Structure formats: C-alpha cells, structure tokens
Amino acid sequence: MKVTIVGAGNVGATCADVISYRGIAGEVVLLDIKEGFAEGKAMDISQCATTTGFNTKVSGSTNDYSKTAGSDVVVITSGIPRKPGMTREELIGINAGIVKSVADNVLQHSPEAIIVVVSNPMDTMTYLTLKATGLPKNRIIGMGGALDSSRFKYYLSKALNKPANDIQGMVIGGHGDTTMIPLTRLASYNGVPVSEFLSQEALDKVAADTMVGGATLTGLLGTSAWYAPGASVAYLVDSILNDQKKMIPCSVLLEGEYGQQDICLGVPCIIGKKGLEQIVDIHLNDNEKALFAKSADAVRNMNADLKS
Ligand code: NAI
C-alpha cells in the first residue's frame, strides 16, 4: 500500500515517520515545494530503518507528482501559517489555492486515492477539497477530531490520574478552539462514566483545557504542535489502509446528519478501506445539539470566506 504526504513539514514528516516505524504502509512518498526538503526528510526517516526495524520504503520529491502515482491514500498537510498582519480571509485564500492545486495534481496520478485533509482551517479546507474535486464524500476526510480526542483523553487521564489508554472519549464539531465539543457526558474510564469520578467543575476544566490544547502547545513551543497531529493522521491512515473500521471523529460532508447540510464538520465516522464508510448518528442532548449548531454556524461563516 502506498501513501503520499504532501507537505514534508513538521506534521507531514512526523506522520511519515509514524507510518514507517509502525509498518502501516509499504511505501511512503513525501512531497514538498521547498527544493530538496522532502528528499532530506525521507532520507533521515529511512536511516531509522535498521535501528527501529522497519521495511517501509520512504522517498521524497520536490514537486514531482509523478512519484506519487498509484497512491491509495494522499494526506494534504501543505499550507502556510498565518503571518503578522495577515487577515483570516487572506490566509484562507492562500491555503485554499495551495490545497486546491495539490488535490488536482495528486488526482492526476492517483485517481482512486482517498484524500485526508489536515491543512488549516481544516473543516473549510475539507469542504473546499470536496467541492473542487467533485469526488464522492467517502473519499474526502478531514483530520482534526482524532487529535482533539487524544488531547481530551490526555486531560481526562491527568484529572483522573489513570492511564490515557484506559479512557474513552470523543470530541466532535469544528476543529477550532471555540468550535470543538468535547463530549464529557459520554466519556468513560474502562466503561464507567467519568462523571462517577470527577465533579462537574473538574469536567468543565478538562473540556476547557482540551479546547485550548493546540494554543497551549503553540504558547510553549512557539509554533504549532506536530507529534500528536502526525500520529493522529497515521492512526486515521491505518484505519483506511488496513480496513480497521475504527470509529474516529472526522470532518466529513453532512447531508442531514446532526441537523446539518452542505458543511464538513467533525462527527463520529467508521473509517475503513472505502474511506468514510458510515456516519454514526449518536444521540446528543439539547445542550450538545445547541453547541453543534453553533459550531456549524462558525464553520459556515469561515466557508463563506472562500467565496469572497
Ligand atoms: P509546516 O510549515 O512545518 O509544513 C508545511 C509544509 O508545506 C512546508 O514544508 C511547505 O514548504 C509545504 N508547502 C507549502 N505549499 C506547498 C505546496 N503548494 N505544495 C507542496 N508543499 C507545500 O507546517 P505544519 O506544522 O506541518 O502544519 C501543516 C498544516 O497542518 C498547517 O496548515 C497547520 O495549521 C495544519 N495542522 C492541522 C492539524 C489538524 O489537526 N488538522 C494539526 C496541526 C497542524
């Protein structure tokens, strides 16, 4: 199985690294516009093969899409961060141009590929990719909920003082610090609702910490995070390539589910070899429904910037 990752920056290269050492795919191609950059990252990762013990073939390319031919999954992490003085609309305009041309190029060489969109603003970029390519919705998946959910479980594990791997929890809604919805009501520790162990005040703090989880890391690192984002993309790619049918919150086109139309937003999805195989309609209470509608309004406003 072959995976192409466009954008060999922090998130893209980390994703390639995790895919390789976990043996998720037989071949990974990194592609970037910066001359020699993807080749360098691929060489560095390849030189871990004997010490971490993997056989994945990793290569890099500067903008030569022919090297990506026949990819089963293409991950798009290319984009630029917001620069001082740049408006949100300008950023969206630039990243939309990048994501659109990348999607065009990869599809010329991998017409059957499933596309995983990571570039921010992710929900809007996923919607744009869907509209620009005209591909069926099962083949365009936005990654955000997997990362936000892993941060949610991290903060729950801190509050509970229990291992994160014993905790179940999910974040739905938009992939933004005011639009995501950590579902504290449904979170559990080995099947027992976390509300049995934590006060409402403690749960509210976990939710608030989760929502600013990305910003907290940017404050500490001076740039946005990459280990957990890269690993989250690899987790999603694993479920596609190896047909694991995991339930992962992903940004996908809604056509009536959760009361929304014509928008890509994070909802629980079954992810397998066809990409999005099913949207799981979980029962939300009135408060969660209201938060979801508010999140959709915010993402819809952002999508409107695509047209202006
Ligand atoms: P980065 O700046 O380290 O890497 C981006 C790479 O894209 C650079 O190497 C750049 O040369 C390349 N690039 C730009 N235009 C290109 C083009 N037209 N073709 C090919 N390559 C191109 O950024 P980082 O930290 O890796 O983040 C990548 C994107 O992912 C950003 O938009 C970031 O906001 C987003 N992100 C999304 C997350 C999510 O959960 N959805 C989590 C973390 C980051």
From TrEMBL:
NAD(+) binds at residues 7-12, 32, 95, 118-120. Residues 1-142 form the Lactate/malate dehydrogenase N-terminal domain. Keywords: NAD, Oxidoreductase, Tricarboxylic acid cycle. It catalyses: (S)-malate + NAD(+) = oxaloacetate + NADH + H(+). Substrate binds at residues 82, 88, 120, 151. HAMAP family: Malate_dehydrog_3. This is Malate dehydrogenase. It comes from Flavobacterium cyanobacteriorum. The lineage of its organism: Bacteria, Pseudomonadati, Bacteroidota, Flavobacteriia, Flavobacteriales.
